[in-house]
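Raw record, unedited: MarR family transcriptional regulator
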Amino acid sequence: MLTKELLAETQEFSETFLELVLRMREVLYENDKRYASYRLSNEEFHTLFFLFTSTEPLGPSDIADKINVTRASMTGLLDRLEKENLLERVNHPKDRRKIILKLTENGTKLVEKIMPPHFEWLSKVKEVFSEEDRQLFTSYLLKMRNIMAEINLINDRTSI
């Protein structure tokens, strides 16, 4: 039951948390606008980005974990990127049971075109934070990831 005491204890944090959520919406909206100008979704761009920057072969489940989408959603996303000739699915060089993803020449060119304005935007955001701020922010994100995983486990157990 919500009491005045509980409300008083949590009000400041609730307002700060809401502010975080609202700023994240703004960031997502800005990203969506930028990527849409290249006819990509946020998830599609990040899929291409991870393939572009990875030194290891990545499969569909690797990317799904990195961009936090379900395996089913990943399949549709990869189908769209493959249809646009931005990536291809190929057999893993050491394990033919596995599929890895490779950027096509078109995919590589598109990422190379997107990266300069993306990094310009990112640098603008980064410049207002000191190294200490960035380290603290990273530790806060890790704490959020851990508590969200814990909450999801609790929710999974109670929904059975």
